[in-house]
Design goal:
- The chain has about 400 residues and is an alpha+beta fold.
- It is built from 13 helices and 13 strands.
- The chain has helices at about 10-20, 70-85, 145-155, 190-205, 205-210, 225-240, 245-250, 260-275, 275-290, 315-320, 325-330, 335-340, 350-365, and strands at about 30-40, 45-55, 55-65, 90-95, 105-110, 120-125, 130-135, 160-170, 180-190, 300, 305-310, 370-375, 385-390.
- Strand 10 and strand 11 (about 305-310) form a beta hairpin.
- Helix 8 packs across helix 13 (about 350-365).
- The chain is globular.
Length: about 400
């Protein structure tokens, strides 16, 4: 998969790959576990879906782009020799998205007991992440079928994918691939828990407990409409106990973790020119070159206000949408807003989207954003979502 520089376009491609089960068919395939559930789509056999939390893990891997699975074999051999007696878990393959590579951003490696840095092998700590997980038995070529079901299930819960796909090889058999056993893991943002942490940070534990009331019964398998109702009620309580800058501070930090690699190129561009408008023009040009599309509401910077908007999740469906519901489902990246039957969520929820772009522009400008205004939101009937950062 090629990298696309637009901060929203990459993420859309990543999500669509998982949902449509297309591009990863040729690519290769710790924790506490919750009881799984059965899931089947389009008449397919049921699978058991578990949720797992990967704790911080010391990991020795080779991270290089790949275009096919055969490229992994010499890397696996190198890793097995170098890691030897320091291996602390099964062979693991990680895909990462929104990073500037040609092909797939691939890291293959092992959990280890101590650091190993040899040739292309580098040891680092994998951060804590939450996953939906299911066991795949059979050749690598059919792993994508399991992955698609995991993403379909994620839609039903209203949680959104993080930027990692993981395959844990419990049994590899290159001579009899039908005997392979692979744990397929799709990461998701456990944002209700992150939300609780941010409430406490900004407003204190007493206010957080009150605002988050009902969150304790939410699980990763809670269905989207029930989750949506809780969000509606919680945001109403939040607005009564906070001002707009506090709401931005809380909700903008309840966003996907953005990879630093996504920002580095544009930070260098800004450092060379000193003009943020060059970054905006580069973003617009990259989006148009790769998709033929532009932002529905152009980005702009006047030296005090940085105005940003989002591109549609599905450009084609968005262009032909007739009803507000069709437009919402075509436009919004957020699984909760997109998949709920009738979301009555306050537009301050869009501060989460502003948090994604905040992670992009803060390192470029070298400053922290403290004030933001939602100017347009699908949630209040606008044609798109947009916001202003007031930087003064």
């Amino acid at each position: 998969m090629k990298h696309y520089s637009s901060p929203d376009f990459d993420r859309r491609c990543f999500i669509e790959i998982g949902l449509k089960c297309v591009a990863l068919a040729s690519i290769p395939p710790c924790c506490g576990m919750n009881p799984g559930l059965a899931w089947a789509g389009n008449g397919a056999p049921k699978i058991d879906i578990d949720t797992l939390v990967r704790q911080p893990t010391l990991f020795a891997g080779i991270r290089k782009p790949i275009t096919n699975r055969k490229q992994l074999e010499p890397r696996i051999e190198t890793l097995q020799k170098a890691c030897s007696q320091k291996i602390a878990g099964p062979l693991t393959h990680i895909f990462r998205f929104d990073t500037p590579v040609e092909g797939y951003d691939s890291e293959i490696g092992f959990p280890v007991t101590e650091a190993i840095n040899h040739r292309d092998i580098r040891t680092h700590t994998l951060r804590e992440m939450h996953f939906y997980s299911a066991l795949h038995e059979g050749p690598d070529e059919t792993i994508s079928e399991i992955r698609a079901k995991l993403y379909q299930h994620m839609n039903t819960t209203g949680l959104s994918p993080e930027l990692e796909l993981v395959e844990v090889f419990h049994h590899r058999d290159t001579e009899q691939p039908q005997r392979a056993r692979t744990q397929v893991m799709t990461s998701f943002l456990a944002w209700p828990e992150v939300y609780r942490t941010q409430l406490a940070r900004v407003l204190g534990n007493e206010a957080a407990d009150s605002i988050w009331q009902g969150g304790e019964i939410m699980t990763p398998h809670t269905l989207v409409d029930a989750r949506c109702r809780w969000v509606e009620e919680s945001l109403a309580r939040l607005k009564k106990r906070s001002d707009v800058d506090q709401q931005f501070d809380i909700l903008s930090r309840v966003a996907l973790v953005r990879p630093s690699e996504d920002t580095n190129h544009y930070r260098k561009l800004y450092e060379r020119s000193g003009d943020l408008r060059d970054v905006l023009r580069a973003q617009e040009a990259d989006l148009k070159a790769k998709t033929g599309k532009t932002f529905p509401d152009p980005w702009r910077w006047d030296g005090k206000v940085l105005h940003l908007s989002k591109v549609p999740y599905n450009h084609k469906a968005y262009a032909t949408a007739k009803s507000p519901t069709d437009k919402r489902k075509a436009y919004c990246f957020c699984n909760l807003v997109r998949e709920a039957a009738d979301p009555q969520i306050d537009p301050i929820f869009c501060y989460r989207a502003a948090g994604w772009s905040r992670q992009f522009f803060e390192p470029i400008l070298g400053r922290q954003f403290t004030s933001c205004k939602i100017t347009h939101s699908i949630l209040r009937g606008d044609d798109f979502c947009a916001w202003d950062y007031h930087l003064g």
